[in-house]
Known about the structure:
globular, 4 strands
Amino acid sequence: METQPKMKVLAESENYTVWVSQEPDQEEIYHIELGNTTYHLFPDEWEEFAQMILEAVR
């Protein structure tokens, strides 16, 4: 029996959503929805992306 991933919205606006899922194998995947495109990132990729965004807004 396959279990559905647990999902949690981290941030949301009218046009964008960032959420994280915990897959049945306990792996976390971060999802960034930008319009009709969704990026799926593993935790190390998410940390790098988040750091880059923080640097860009400084």
